[in-house]
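Long-time lurker. I teach an intro course on protein structure, and each term I like to show students one example going from raw sequence to a predicted 3D structure in C-alpha cell notation. This year I'd like something fresh instead of my usual example. Would anyone be willing to generate the C-alpha cells for the chain below so I can use it in lecture? Attribution to the forum is fine with me.
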Amino acid sequence: VSAQTLRISPALLKIELSPGKITTQEFLIDNLTNNPLPVKINVEGFDSNDEDFGIKVAEKISTPLADWISLDNTDTIIPAKSQTKITATINVPSEVPFGGYYAVIFFDPLPNPADLTIQGNQINARLGAITLASIGVASSQNEAEIITFTSDKSFYNADSPQLTLRAKNTGLNFFTAKPSIVVDPLIGQTTTIDWEEKTILPGKVRRWERDL
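-- Reply from a regular --
Happy to contribute to a lecture. Here you go:
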C-alpha cells in the first residue's frame, strides 16, 4: 500500500435526518502529495454484522441511506498540496421507518500512470467517510444489553484471564459505548480499566476482548 495520499474531513459523520427533508453535507479532501491526484468518489452501503470492527466492505452492498445520497462530483483532480470539497445531498423519502441508517462515501485515489510505468504496480488504500444517520429517534434514546461477559478460565494465579464482552444495541438509534471494568480485590486498591470506544448500530452486536 502506498503512503497516505488523501485526508478526508469529516471521516465520521453523525447526523439527524427527517422524513421528506433534503440535507446537504460538505466533505473536504486534502491532496497530501506533491503531484495532482485524480480521485473517484462513490457511495456504498456496508455489512454491519462484524462484531470486531462494526463494518465489512469487502463487497458492494446497497443500504437505504446509500440510495438517498447523491454527490455533486464523482470524479475530480486535486492539485498538489491542495484541498477541494464535494457536497453530498441526502434526500430522505417522505415515508420512512424511524431508526438508524448508515452508508460510507469512498474516496479512491487513482494511480498515476507514470508511477505504474516506473514501479510496475501500485496499490492505493481506499478512504471512506462513515455516515450514520438517525431518523425520528433522539440521541438520548439508547437501549442495550450485555449478552456475553466471560473469562477464559474460572480460576487463575499469576496469569491474566482473557475477558470477552459482547453488547447488543436493542434500540433504534446508533450510539457509542466505552466499557469499564472495575477490579475490587480483597487486599489492595480498586482499579478501573477502560476499554476502547466502539459504535454500535441498531440491532447489532459489538465485541471487546482483552487480557485483564
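Some talking points for your students: Residues 160 and 194 are 16 Å apart (CA to CA). The chain has a mean pLDDT of 85.
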